[in-house]
Task: inverse folding
């Protein structure tokens, strides 16, 4: 299974398929530690038993119905302080593909969850290894709900739920298209080291798809609820929220979106 070769230069030229594993990110990290990794290598499984989310939450995915993969990268062109640019490129690469099915309903919820309207369709977990001031290796974990139609979390959805398809998506074909889209944005990021205008294009595209960008909503920080408007993201990935006369910046895990009827 997954023994195809996508029309890419780097991403997915080698695929390691596991029928079941605890975490594709863990397997990818083990390959790096054993000096058995190469840039673009994709680890994929039908059944991930202990997948992790951005905040340490477990990722719910029924076996054989979704895409659970990790992509190994070597973005040594990025400094440690530029890690969030990888988040931007990865989020865009995945959302470019999803958007072909759901169009402008697809949003990137900071820092890197993927939403259709108000429901989560996927998540990204990027784990970086630094060497000096640069990023030596990155493991990009991606979980996308494709054919699963029922979830314990009412805030979750899938591509099949959100499209008029009468039949399930073919996961191998979906992966092929996803990897192609992913590589286009990654190569654009790599080119930005010599072409600064590329970063402006990436940042503008990210903000255009940013969940609740320039909208007034409730948030929670330091156990207090407040009203604010997302006005941007800093160069280091801090979320900028205008709350009254105060412009506040938040890092990962420092602010919570109020969703639904909370």
Result:
């Amino acid at each position: 299974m997954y023994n195809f070769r996508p029309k890419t230069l780097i991403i997915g030229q080698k695929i390691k398929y596991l029928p079941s594993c605890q975490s594709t990110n863990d397997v990818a990290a083990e390959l790096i530690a054993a000096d058995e990794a190469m840039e673009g290598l994709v680890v994929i499984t039908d059944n991930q038993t202990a997948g992790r989310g951005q905040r340490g939450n477990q990722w719910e995915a029924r076996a054989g119905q979704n895409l659970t993969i990790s992509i190994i990268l070597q973005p040594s062109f990025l400094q440690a302080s530029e890690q969030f640019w990888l988040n931007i490129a990865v989020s865009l690469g995945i959302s470019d593909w999803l958007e072909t099915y759901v169009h402008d309903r697809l949003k990137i919820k900071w820092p890197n969850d993927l939403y259709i309207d108000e429901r989560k369709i996927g998540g990204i977990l990027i784990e970086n290894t630094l060497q000096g001031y640069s990023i030596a290796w990155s493991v990009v974990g991606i979980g996308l709900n494709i054919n699963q139609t029922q979830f314990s979390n009412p805030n979750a959805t899938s591509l099949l739920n959100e499209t008029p398809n009468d039949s399930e998506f073919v996961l191998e074909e979906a992966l092929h298209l996803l990897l192609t889209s992913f590589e286009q944005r990654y190569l654009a990021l790599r080119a930005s080291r010599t072409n600064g205008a590329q970063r402006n294009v990436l940042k503008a595209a990210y903000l255009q798809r940013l969940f609740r960008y320039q909208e007034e909503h409730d948030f929670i920080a330091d156990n207090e609820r407040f009203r604010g408007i997302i006005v941007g993201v800093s160069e280091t990935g801090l979320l900028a929220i205008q709350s009254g006369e105060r412009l506040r910046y938040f890092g990962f895990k420092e602010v919570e979106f109020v969703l639904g009827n909370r």
Q: What stands out?
A: The chain has a mean pLDDT of 93. The chain is about 25% helix and 30% strand. The radius of gyration is 18 Å. The CA atoms of residues 138 and 193 lie 17 Å apart.
